[in-house]
Design goal:
Strand content: 25-35%
CATH topology of the largest domain: Rossmann fold
Number of helices: 8
Order of helices and strands: HHEHEHEEEHEHEEEEEHH
Biased composition (Low complexity): 34-47
Number of strands: 11
Pfam families: Brix
Keywords: Nucleus, Ribosome biogenesis
Radius of gyration: 33 Å
Distance between the termini: 110 Å
Family: Belongs to the BRX1 family.
Organism: Kwoniella newhampshirensis
CATH class of the largest domain: Alpha Beta
Length: 314
């Protein structure tokens, strides 16, 4: 309501200023000059022309059952992305459309949802709320900043350059590239942003997987501070690998735009390992059974020894 009153007052002030400009311009040939003055006032009131600044915000949340390593990965990403808003854990895993309502409540246009399964498998949902698209990825080889203990360092709240290495011109890679750009690229309008660019967020596509790395930009060699500038990169962390599973047209659902035919779920992989271990056990037991039957046949064919212990000491 106060915003509506303020807008109406602004419109009324613009009308009065336009009317005063026409009166000062006069009649007759001066009408054109008055119209030009009024148009100039309108343009000044409307503000500078050009593209509007991007005001993307990212909602970050997780499901129940996340482990310590998963929580530390979320904390590292929250530190790297000052335009994120963290929410509490989501109780349900079936009604993911509720995340769109949470993003609307927090005024967020992007969503990062970490879904934990069986306390060991981690999946990452990236979505453009509320209309989509969205992608589901399997997260592997997670290494946090505290675990790596790299020598690189960057300012907390600084902006990072988003870099893409490898071929990103496939049928679905362009969609993933656009989503990574919107989610991991910090807009200039972020409140917690510091006006520095001192690290690079790199996404490399190799062997059907997306490899994430974070590097610090060093302009001078620390061993020769008085020498000429020699830019270099030093890794900071964290590290993780994403395997795209599906891309949906909507946000957390809808028609499937892409399905990875080479993806095998971790549960199926573990089941195959258990089946292989069980096959070894069955082969060993079958060999023991065959040896026992062979011994029985030998005893039946040869007969009982006259010098056997139970006959001698009977």
């Amino acid at each position: 309501m106060p915003a509506l009153i303020k807008a109406s007052e602004k419109i009324q002030n613009n009308k009065e200023r336009r009317k005063a400009a026409k009166q000062r311009a006069g009649a007759g040939d001066d009408d054109q000059e008055g119209a030009a003055a009024a148009a100039a006032i309108d343009n000044a009131a409307a503000g500078p022309s050009g593209p509007k600044p991007r005001k993307d915000k990212t909602l970050m949340l997780c499901s129940r059952g996340v482990t310590q390593r998963m929580r530390h990965l979320m904390r590292d990403l929250e530190v790297l992305l000052p335009h994120t808003k963290k929410d509490s854990k989501l109780d349900t895993k079936s009604s993911l459309h509720l995340i769109n309502e949470l993003a609307d409540l927090h005024s967020c246009s992007n969503t990062m949802y970490f879904e934990a399964r069986r306390h060991e498998d981690l999946y990452l949902w990236l979505s453009r709320s509320p209309n989509g698209p969205s992608v589901k990825c399997h997260v592997q080889n997670v290494h946090t900043m505290d675990e790596l203990k790299m020598t690189g360092n960057c300012l907390r709240g600084s902006r990072g350059l988003v870099s893409f290495a490898g071929g990103w011109e496939g049928e679905y890679l362009s969609t993933l590239k656009e989503m990574f750009t919107h989610i991991f690229s910090v807009p200039k309008t972020s409140r917690r942003l510091k006006p520095f660019v001192d690290h690079i967020l790199q996404f490399s596509f190799l062997d059907g997987k997306i490899w994430f790395r974070n590097f610090q930009i060093i302009e001078k060699d620390p061993l020769t501070p008085s020498g000429p500038p020699t830019p270099s990169l030093v890794e900071i962390g964290p590290r993780f690998v994403l395997t795209p599973i599906r891309i949906f047209e909507g946000s957390f659902g809808g028609p499937t735009l892409f399905a990875n035919p080479e993806f095998i779920s971790p549960a199926a992989t573990r089941a195959s390992f258990k089946k292989e271990a069980g096959q070894k056990y069955r082969v060993r037991k079958e060999g023991e059974r065959e040896r026992e039957e062979r011994r029985k046949r030998v005893r039946e064919d040869v007969g009982e020894d006259e010098l056997a212990r139970k006959k001698v000491f009977a």
